Amino acid sequence: MFNMRLNLSRKKRYYALAALAVGCLLAGVMAKTHFAKTTSKPENLPVVRTQVVQPVTARQGYSYAGEVRGLLESQLAFQVTGKIIKRNVQLGSVVNAGDVLMQIDAKDIQQTVSSNSAQVYSAQSQLRLAESNLSRYRELLDSGAISRAQYDQYVNAYDAAAAAVQQAGAQYTQGANQLDYTLLKADQAGVVSAITAEAGQVVSASQTVVTVIQDGEQEIEINVPENRLEELKAAEQLHITFWALPNMTLDGKVREIAPMADPTTRTFKVRVSLLNPPPTVKLGMTATVSLAGGAAHTAFSIPLSALYQTGDTPAVWVVNDNILTLRPIQTGPFGNGTIQVLAGLQSGDLIVSAGVHKLKEGQRVKTTGDAL
What we know:
Residues 1-31 form the signal peptide. The chain has 372 residues and is of the alpha+beta class. It has helices at 2-40, 107-143, 148-181, 229-233; strands at residues 47-48, 50-52, 55-70, 73-77, 82-87, 94-95, 100-104, 183-185, 190-195, 202-203, 208-214, 218-225, 238-242, 249-257, 267-274, 286-303, 308-310, 313-320, 323-328, 330-334, 338-343, 350-352, 366-367.
């Protein structure tokens, strides 16, 4: 009996030890699996677009936006006051010398002309009467029937009648001129570039209603700040490009600089003559006048989206071993969606070209390549 109890006790200890070993084994396997899962989880790094900067040789220059204008522009106005009843031209209309552009209602002026015409007839009738009286009284003077004093009165009446005829004739001519002034005519051949009055509008004398650009030379009108005038005067070469003609570049020269600044913009109007412009250059086109000058220098051109502004200091994110570093830079002129970097970068630097405001110093990132 004792031996049976001893064997039973040994079996219980054996089963307990076996169960403990199996539990420890399972716990070790679970811990190993959990540790493997924890250590094998990949790091979630943001992906950024990058660009390798390359140096370019540039010259410090300035560009001014302008418009193609005619060398001679006529701002036409009526010489009389009245209501416009007809407009015969549109913007861009080609006109010849003598063409009627607008017409004013001439009813009142026509009445004035008719009244002046009647005064002319009346004055001429008085003159004929004075001439007949003078002829008769000259015969009476020769026969001694009247005195010299009486005769002089009729001479004076004749002179007054002759002067009245001249006065009435002058008034009639003036009225006839005003009647002709109701027709606004082009004084030179050209193109209508502006219309500032419409039919039905009452305009005063000397009020500009139509602008005509005369046929002939073309030029570019630009506005230049006062601190760039001397540089513009000394420029040896001006390059002119056109927004509508991207493959064309023309040479130009400064023809005229306004003596006073515009009271609103505080800039000076400058006229740049086009040298041998082709027929494809039309009036009103948008143009850019570029002034190249200064010594050549090395710069980097980066997209505007790569610029990160912190206060007054511009900077870019530079990627080194997938780690971001914010580097201050010195910027230069703007381009078409780009900006020049004069200092702060070196050839071969890898910079972030987009999404720069979502990054932070020392952050690890993934790059998509060295090109946009």
